[in-house]
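Regression test case RT-17, inverse folding.

Input:
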């Protein structure tokens, strides 16, 4: 039996939260403060992972994993980099119009892989920057944190990112301009719109959010009424910062529910889908689920158990409509703690008992597929992904103390964005 399984729930959460947090310091550049997308050799920085890291440093201080001075130093180093990094339409800049490229070189901070100027990843970075500003409320160096955070947020030109349309584009490249697709259907973009609408400098009009909600799909799925989005992470990312309990926009007032309750229903859909297991994948059951974006077996077609099976590599998987190739994200169940703690803990313990190899150094791998086996055993993603680790640290803390939610309720920009978007009730 795994040593982790012998621990009490609190002790288990201590170990797994700390193990996830250590990724954010183990794979950070000491000069820029940038954090690697994955633990794999030569991985670039993901700006979204930096946003999660900035949100997790206050948690580390509160849990005495890091001194406040050390957290201030790391935070300042990171904010100074983003404030002074190159902002232009040149193809090797760090960003443009206040937004940043999805992936940056860990040392120089320059764009890599001809990636897109990413709106959603910039929003996740900004959420972390604003979390730092809310937590570090002292004088001296903490004054500089708040000043830099404010300047970086105010610089973003949200109106430009509408590309003369009602809603937001997904991204932009200097080689070809705006990408030819936007945000359609409910997903992780809630925080993107709220931050844009709350801006004091280049605000999105509230109609941008309303226009996006017109693309929502409300469905009856596997016994649940739910605002549909297939991958589990889309029901979690914005919630890492925004406490949606009891607050409602026009869409949710009409449905007599809220986004927090909707995530609970999405978890129930995941569990029911895994219990029914329509494709007969190994491992799936009501206590082993978590179908979402992440690493998977390389893109290939194989003949398994008398039938053709396609695997997708790194992919955003979802239920009940797919894609689904039998790949589970081992971290995903535990990340749902604030919404359904019994299911999250029971599922995590079941996973650790049945497949202990998914967690090494107290840190979950990105993907696991029990249907694809070799002489080495079931397929397992190599290394770790920063997004998984950062989200897990935050969600465990929101379950335990609500620290990040409490901080962000004080952020005037988020409050303004929520109110302008039509949210009322609860803590607002």
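Golden output:
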């Amino acid at each position: 039996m795994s040593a982790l399984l012998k621990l009490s729930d609190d002790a288990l959460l201590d170990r797994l939260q700390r193990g996830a947090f250590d990724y954010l310091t183990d794979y950070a550049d000491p000069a820029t403060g940038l954090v690697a997308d994955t633990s794999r050799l030569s991985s670039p920085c993901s700006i979204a992972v930096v946003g999660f890291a900035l949100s997790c440093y206050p948690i580390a201080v509160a849990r005495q994993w890091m001194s406040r001075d050390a957290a201030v130093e790391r935070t300042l180093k990171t904010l100074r980099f983003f404030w002074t990094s190159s902002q232009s339409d040149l193809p090797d800049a760090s960003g443009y119009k206040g937004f940043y490229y999805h992936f940056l070189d860990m040392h120089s901070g320059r764009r890599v892989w001809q990636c897109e100027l990413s709106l959603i990843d910039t929003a996740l970075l900004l959420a972390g920057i604003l979390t730092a500003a809310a937590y570090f409320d002292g004088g001296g160096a903490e004054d500089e944190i708040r000043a830099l955070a404010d300047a970086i947020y105010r610089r973003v030109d949200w109106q430009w990112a509408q590309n003369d349309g009602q809603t937001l584009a997904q991204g932009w490249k200097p080689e070809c301009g705006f990408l030819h697709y936007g945000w359609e259907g409910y997903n992780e973009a809630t925080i993107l719109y709220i931050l844009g609408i709350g801006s004091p400098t280049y605000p999105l009009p509230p109609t941008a959010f309303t226009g996006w909600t017109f693309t929502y799909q409300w469905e009856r799925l596997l016994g649940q009424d739910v605002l549909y989005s297939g991958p589990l992470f889309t029901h979690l990312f914005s919630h890492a910062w925004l406490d949606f309990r009891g607050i409602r926009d026009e869409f949710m007032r009409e449905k007599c529910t809220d986004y927090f309750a909707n995530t609970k229903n999405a978890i129930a859909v995941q569990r029911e889908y895994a219990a029914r297991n329509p494709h007969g994948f190994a491992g799936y059951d009501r206590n082993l689920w978590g179908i979402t974006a992440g690493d998977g077996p390389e893109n290939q077609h194989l003949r398994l158990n008398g039938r053709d099976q396609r695997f997708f590599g790194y992919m955003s998987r979802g239920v009940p409509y797919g894609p689904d190739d039998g790949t589970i994200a081992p971290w995903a169940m535990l990340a749902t703690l604030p919404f359904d703690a019994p299911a999250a803990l029971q599922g995590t313990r079941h996973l650790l008992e049945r497949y202990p190899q998914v967690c090494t150094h107290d840190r979950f791998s990105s993907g696991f597929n029990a249907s694809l086996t070799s002489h080495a055993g079931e397929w397992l993603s190599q290394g770790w992904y920063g997004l998984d680790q950062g989200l897990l640290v935050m969600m465990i803390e929101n379950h335990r103390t609500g620290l990040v939610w409490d901080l962000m309720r004080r952020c005037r920009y988020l409050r303004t964005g929520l109110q302008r978007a039509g949210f009322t009730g609860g803590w607002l």
